[in-house]
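Sequence, please.
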């Protein structure tokens, strides 16, 4: 992929040189300490080739990008019954909004806002101990990325546990409506830990391949989910993957994507590639500022927007 290699390298150089980098998340010290000058990008094509630029092999906290994979696992476990516990409409609200949850009787608007992701985590946890549920999530990430070294940053997880007052409020509120089956502390423990998974752009792009290729890992041919399920997860990423910046992301980038407050974004170019970018500075909606710009440049230069 000579053209792709060149484009990816150029974008990495351009992003590294930019002064506008957004603001690093400060709600826990571990994220606040990350160097805002970092930028990484990895693109994995269907032929198995990988194009990388910048800090593509530097591990970062994937945070809410993990919600794509927990959604996949929960759908695998209970199928469409999941949609009784969580909706699939864009929220138009910040990631941790509580107002909407009250209006909608404890049913979170979608699986990617915090309340929805906590409900999804609760589904994975049911019938298991927290440690087993977490092990299942971690094994899934290692399997998808073909990398057994992927792990959880325990310091980040502990920090989230200590400061996650609003997530605790969301979880307790859902529990009062019977939306959560497990003890709130157990569900939150698993949620905080899967948000604290650490991965590089290269590992994350590898993990997202099944979404770009009809539910299959293109290098092994192994089916992770059905083509229909992959299509639907992509649809939710497109409409809900960037909180109240989802419309802007679709408008500018034109790909399904999911962001995290660690500054990572996983984006899917269906039939083409799985893409991960990372730049820790965030915009006002809590999405990676340069990550979004880099993806916009990538889709523009390669003609990869799903909208033509
Ligand atoms: N762990 C973060 C939280 O629950 C994830 C938020 C995000 O990445 O958007 O607050």
């Amino acid at each position: 992929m000579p053209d792709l290699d060149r484009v990816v390298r150029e974008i990495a150089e351009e992003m590294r040189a930019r002064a506008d980098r957004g603001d690093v998340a400060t709600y826990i010290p571990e994220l606040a300490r990350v160097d805002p000058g970092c930028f990484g990008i990895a693109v994995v094509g269907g032929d198995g080739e990988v194009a990388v630029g910048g800090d593509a092999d530097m591990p970062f906290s994937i945070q809410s990008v993990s919600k794509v994979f927990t959604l996949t696992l929960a759908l695998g476990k209970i199928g469409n019954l999941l949609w009784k516990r969580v909706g699939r409409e864009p929220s138009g609200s910040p990631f941790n909004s509580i107002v909407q949850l009250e209006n909608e009787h404890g049913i979170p608007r979608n699986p990617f806002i915090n309340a929805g992701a906590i409900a999804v985590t609760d589904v994975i946890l049911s019938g298991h101990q927290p440690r087993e549920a977490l092990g299942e999530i971690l094994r899934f990430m290692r399997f998808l990325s073909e990398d057994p070294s992927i792990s959880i940053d325990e310091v980040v997880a502990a920090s989230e546990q200590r400061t996650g007052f609003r997530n605790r409020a969301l979880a307790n509120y859902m529990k009062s409506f019977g939306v959560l089956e497990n003890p709130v502390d157990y569900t939150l423990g698993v949620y905080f830990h899967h948000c604290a998974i650490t991965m590089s752009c290269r590992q994350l792009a590898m993990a997202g391949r099944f979404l770009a290729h009809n539910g299959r890992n293109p290098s092994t041919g192994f089916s992770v989910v059905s083509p229909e399920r992959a299509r639907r997860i992509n649809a939710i990423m497109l409409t809900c993957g960037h909180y109240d910046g989802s419309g802007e992301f679709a408008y500018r980038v034109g790909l399904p994507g999911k962001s995290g407050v660690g500054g990572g974004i996983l984006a899917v170019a269906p039939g083409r590639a799985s893409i991960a970018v990372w730049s820790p500075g965030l915009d006002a909606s809590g999405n990676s500022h340069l990550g979004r710009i880099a993806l916009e440049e990538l889709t523009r230069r390669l003609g990869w927007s799903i909208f033509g």
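Residues 63-64, 95-96, 114, 160, 167, 195, 260-261, 286 surround glutamic acid (CB under 6 Å).
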